[in-house]
Amino acid sequence: MKTVIDQLLQEATILGMLDEAMTYDEYLDKSPKITKKGKEGTKQGSSDVSIRTALAYKGQKFKNNQNQVDDSRKDAYAQAVAYLQSGIEQGELKRNKLAADVKDDVLRKSPERPAAADDAAEEPDENPARAGQPPEDSFDDTFGDDTAAGKKVDEPTDTKSQRRVQGNITDESIDAVDGEQKDLALEGKAKAPGNPSSLINEIEIGYGMTMFSDNPDVSVEDVTEELYNRTKDTVMGKRNGEKKTRDACLAAAISAKRENTRVQEFLASEDMNPDTTEISHVWGSQQSLQATVDTLEEDGVEEVNGLPFETYKGIIMAGGAGANPTDTMITMIDSSKTPPKAIILHTSNKTSTADIQSNSSPEKNIEAMINAAKEMEENGDLTPKESNKIIKLAEETRKGLIAKQKEIASIVSSSFANAREQVESGDYVETLKTLSTGSQPDVYWQKLAKRYSNSKNKFAVKVSDPPTPEEEKEIAGAYLKEMEYLATTKDEVAPPTADMNTILARTALTDEDEEKMIELYQEQHEMQNKMRLKMNKTKEGFGDRVMAKTFMSRLHLDVAEGHAPGGIPPQYFELNMGHNKSNIKYDDDGQAYIKEDGKFYPIDVESGDVDKDAEPKKISQLNSGTTATIGNMETLAGALGYKIPPPPENIDEKIRVGSIESAATGPAGKAFIYGINVDDEEVIIGFQSVRPKDGKGTRHQDTIEWAKDFQTRLQLASARQAQQERKEKPNESVSYRHIQTLIEMASKV
């Protein structure tokens, strides 16, 4: 019996169950900052404050410098208390070490346990297996601190060789929350942001998870085929076409493989009973988000991801909007706990590493400058004079951009007026019918006739078959109306098709018009460059730092620092990209190769060493592999050149920001190329592209994409993670239930 118990204690030690807690001051010394909200009804932005500062607000009766009770201070204090609570739950801090003025606001370590055991639980137990009770931190230590209202995390998620437990994932459980919404979406009757490929990818990931759960050794190819067969005859599958739908299903299969592993890791780390935990995959429509809230409410959940459910409702409902990048969620609800334990894994889904990662506009970037100036002034990092100067520069730039856009709109309006005159004379229709230089001179006209005879188009006209000359004029007029609307509206609209832009360029805009428009767009580029450089002079590096911070936030790079995107505790967030478009490729045996000097050489995934002595392979001999490219706390830090824990800090200070470079021809520009020095070599992280995305004459918008270099580094970090995970097969033997069983067996010996 003693031998068995000794063995159990050794196992417990290996699992990290006997870690000593810190003192209160030690815990606060290593605490991150949290975000204090801006004041409601003012333009004052949020700011970062220390945990100590936030806790001190209680002694100040939450009053600000104007001796008024400040709700943002109450919120910051609540976040700080939640941070202390998480430390207790993780076993890093003992409740009896807390300061007297905050102790009553912090829950005891184990709310599920009987009250009689509370006080005893505050002191280390010589036998963690006593009475069959596992220590509460036995599984959560891997993930560190889940923090105050999800604002910052002290120790990032370490995804290396995570303990894993096999869950019970079925099609029924996957659909338990919003199965009906998914069916409606595939039939084109429910919507979420994105195109048909992204919709198919996001929805089918859940069903792919069931297949990997049933058979961990099933091939990605087999899962892809099954997902395609599920999808091909739906409205969205047909609309998307076979090739795009197959590609979307392949991306879904690759991503599902990772999501299934992720669930297994969290079942273990959160000590959730796999037999009583319902695992669902939730799509991103507003109805799906509401159904998630309703499900959690009906189940009696009081906390999600360690935060109060009332707080988390807002995080869920904000999915896909603003700072919350959630496209899909995995809900895990363990009904064996009282109240039920709920974990939500949030995912930003992309079909490939080459996808556009974020959309914005110059106006929003300027707004970020203004908010940053106000925040830094509040924190004392900018003088009022500096802040006012920066805000003035930003406002002047914004007004200048608007003025240039009005000039562009004037050119468009003038060109449309000329075209409408041609419509009345009949000349415009004849021009359209002979616009193509190919074998079908009227191909563009036929496309317009089809578009504007479709009653679903808001600009459609009633036409005969064939249309009369007057009806043909109406078709041409409808085209001009739609193009003018797209060029001048401030609403979010689908951009004109390539054919529609071609027709405009060949019929309405003169060479002189187009040249002037391009010149005006380029002047907008230069205005933004000058603004940033002037801000740098006002406060050393200010413009660069704000652009770098904005860039990091939009790409979720700040997750590596412990930032909570949209309030989501960072260990519960992950970027998941299916198709690998990087310079990492694989042979049929799974050996990784990297492209260097135009050739592919073997690379050791773990060490990053490249074997230049080996015979290089041709791209035709390699494939993209089946490892999803992941952006989480570990992989993002690794790709940026950091090892965690501890989390890196102030990454933005190391990022180089470039200027907008106007294209040689056309109105577009490549903007703000961002690079970081890793091992004495600059790695380009990504770039912004600025262009009138909705067609010629429309407002500038910008997109952000990963650079090829960084795609490569992320894929390599993800492959390393996957390689480590393969060493850890899902197994319940790592859970404390196994130790309990052994004790029971030993007691009978």
Q: How would you describe the oligomerization state of the chains in this entry?
A: single chain
| Structural class by helix and strand composition | alpha+beta
Number of distinct beta strands = 18
Q: Evaluate the radius of gyration.
A: 29 Å
Globular, elongated, flat, extended or rod-shaped: what is the shape?
A: globular
Percentage beta strand:
5-15%
Helical content (DSSP H or I, runs of 4+): 40-55%
Q: Main beta sheet: strand number and arrangement?
A: 6 strands, antiparallel
Number of helices: 25
Arithmetic mean pLDDT: 83
End-to-end distance, in Å?
A: 7 Å
Give structural notes.
This protein has 749 residues and is of the alpha+beta class. Among the domains are: 2-150, no CATH class; 171-320 and 328-345, no CATH class; 537-725, no CATH class. 45% of the residues lie in helices and 13% in strands. The chain contains 25 helices and 18 strands. Strands 8, 14, 15, 16, 17 and 18 form a six-stranded antiparallel sheet that branches. It has a five-stranded mixed sheet with strand order 3-6-7-9-13. A three-stranded antiparallel sheet has the order 10-11-12. Helix 1 packs antiparallel against helix 25 (736-747), helix 3 crosses helix 4 and helix 23 crosses helix 24 (708-726). The longest helix has 42 residues, at 384-425. The radius of gyration is 29 Å and the shape is globular. It starts with a helix and ends with a helix.
Nutshell version of this structure?
The protein is α+β, with helices and mostly antiparallel strands and 749 residues long. The protein is built from 25 helices and 18 strands.
